[in-house]
């Protein structure tokens, strides 16, 4: 009978349970995906230059576990808010509290276990899909990554089983202790005590000052070092909490005092709702803002390392391709590249010297790298034939393009007439630049590999003058950062947005009467929906904006590790805003259906 009642209850609220079930499925899928990386030490060590990366991911796994636990609590409160009146009705019909508790236990644990099983299978599929997408579309070089991990699967199943077991026991005990009247009046919300203005002002000033100190520490981390990181962590966490505790409430209070704003449509009602919710959600919104910053920061830094790979390759190797003994290379392959620059330098080689024509360098200067000014806009120095003839340092720039057995020989830059009188064997060094390196990558790589095989015993990883080989080297180093950053960012954002969504939905039942009263006095449904959009919009927007501000200042910490951590910032921010907007729209739709279209009993 208990099983039948539990299944009937789930079927009766199938629409709401599908929302809860899909959220739990995604939670377990994301947890599995992360564990599949965190438990794979071979993958972490082979795709990162940081020796502590395994510890970092273990710490991240614990952090995700804490977030998941919070998520389950909010999802659980959403479930209880849906069903508590049904439980009260069962009690009124004579059902004993012990039986109701058993039914709640079955419902909670059943939904959780099924969601975990489906989520684990989905996680395996997503892990494989994400790996394929990132490797193929972003040209990452990832090794030792396996989508299916028995250890990760076992950890996921055990972790969620324990969580749902705890939640089921907690739900059963909570309902068993409540009276019928308490269950029926659970949605009544007590009035909040007014905060003293002087205390609110002090908290506002302290919150702003704390954030300012934290941002200042991050802006000059070379000076403050580890102390700066510690101070920034404490002050930013404190400042974030106080922003929601006082600054936002102060702003809402000022808006309510403005008749031009508060008395327009339902603004006064919306501002009052927000004032109450901000006080009630202080800890939740603070956690969302901080972990939003961590998630966005992980994605931004990961993509930032990827963005600087072509820049670093371009700085290290001025030419997209160079060919030794170029006279033996098919012109058709070169023409297919549609080169923007195509220069031939003729050379003759004796037993101890390499001769070049001075006039050829005067007509087409040799490009050399500038290493002391790394930036997104890479600049080169042009070296003429005269400079090469008189400056040994500049000759060394030319020497790096020679074959290994030629680099020990003396370089001599001579006039065309003197060059023509030499009887030594003649060959050609061809320097090529294309309009789009990424578009021509495959063709360039093929030609570079052919040049390497035909002319040198060196391996590509020893060649730091051929741009495609430099690109491959940096890509191999930083691809792991991008993969992990992308993975972490999306996982944390999904979990946090879900936590915020269920936190809002868990209080929706208590708002039904408020909106019903407004409808009874003639308020148009369109105004009520607009009020809902504004209210939920602020709850999503404020932690999102604050998290973005944290990231903008936090990127200062990476200025010594990256050429420009702010380069192409629109990409990670755009990804986050798009995903965040999806959760915002879903929350509005669910909340509106609950408060404006309650089910008829």
Tell me what you see in this structure.
The chain is built from 22 helices and seven strands. A five-stranded mixed β-sheet has the order 1-7-2-3-6. Strands 4-5 form a two-stranded antiparallel sheet. It has helices spanning 2-12, 14-38, 41-46, 53-92, 97-137, 150-176, 180-184, 197-219, 221-257, 259-262, 267-280, 282-316, 331-336, 358-363, 385-390, 392-399, 416-421, 441-455, 467-506, 512-520, 525-554, 570-595, and strands at 321-324, 341-349, 353-357, 366-369, 380-383, 410-414, 426-433. The longest helix has 41 residues, at 97-137. α4 (53-92) packs parallel to α19 (467-506) and α9 (221-257) crosses α12. By secondary structure, it is α+β, with helices and mostly antiparallel strands.
Short description:
The chain contains 22 helices and 7 strands. By secondary structure, it is of the alpha+beta class. Strands 1-7-2-3-6 form a 5-stranded mixed sheet. Strands 4-5 form a two-stranded antiparallel sheet.
Produce the secondary structure layout:
Elements: H1 2-12, H2 14-38, H3 41-46, H4 53-92, H5 97-137, H6 150-176, H7 180-184, H8 197-219, H9 221-257, H10 259-262, H11 267-280, H12 282-316, E1 321-324, H13 331-336, E2 341-349, E3 353-357, H14 358-363, E4 366-369, E5 380-383, H15 385-390, H16 392-399, E6 410-414, H17 416-421, E7 426-433, H18 441-455, H19 467-506, H20 512-520, H21 525-554, H22 570-595
Parallel strand pairs: 3-6
Antiparallel strand pairs: 1-7, 2-3, 2-7, 4-5
